[in-house]
Design goal:
The complex is a heterodimer. By secondary structure, chain A is an all-beta fold. Helix content of chain A is about 0%, strand content about 55%. In chain A, strands 2, 4, 5, 6, 9, 10 and 11 form a seven-stranded mixed beta sheet that branches. The radius of gyration of chain A is 13 Å and the shape is globular. By secondary structure, chain B is mainly β. Chain B contains no helices and eleven strands. Chain B starts with a strand and ends with a strand. Classes of the chains: A mainly beta, B mainly beta. The interface between A and B is medium-sized, with 20 and 24 residues.
Chain lengths: ~110, ~110
Amino acid sequence: ETGVTQTPRHLVMGMTNKKSLKCEQHLGHNAMYWYKQSAKKPLELMFVYNFKEQTENNSVPSRFSPECPNSSHLFLHLHTLQPEDSALYLCASSQASGDQETQYFGPGTRLLVL
Amino acid sequence: GQNIDQPTEMTATEGAIVQINCTYQTSGFNGLFWYQQHAGEAPTFLSYNVLDGLEEKGRFSSFLSRSKGYSYLLLKELQMKDSASYLCAVRDSNYQLIWGAGTKLIIKP
């Protein structure tokens, strides 16, 4: 399944580093999402973009900065992260149609903050 | 608050049947999803229920009762490859997905 791709798959960074996560969807969808997945916790929605416009920001700290240059690409810029930000970061896309609107996920970036 | 409850872990035997339950309390309801997630991989869509009743898809079936705030995922003829986490998610009145923490299913030979 290569509908939604994410790079890198693994990332180790220090608290003073700046890095970016990339997501690309090849499904022709018009909505994209960033989620955080921590062990034994529900998926946490971070950001939503519809037609390149950010429509949700669920009280995410400013050290996470999303960017959506077009409907196929989504970035998550990271700076001065904390160890508790270590998690799996998942990107998803969907076709906003008001109906089933199933979200399709990428494989995620496993982030470790030291 | 909004809440999705599902068991943390279940164990079943290869070839058997297992039922994974999900109960929810959400502000509104616009559909319920089940996803499968193998360790280190993306969650993949399994089923969608918006009306009461049973939806069958091969070895997997999903049931919904909106009046009870309850769903289950039924897996038949279990195979070792079914070892994974199963995530329940409900779309609320704002069309946001509210996720459960997932049920880790362990299949033993």
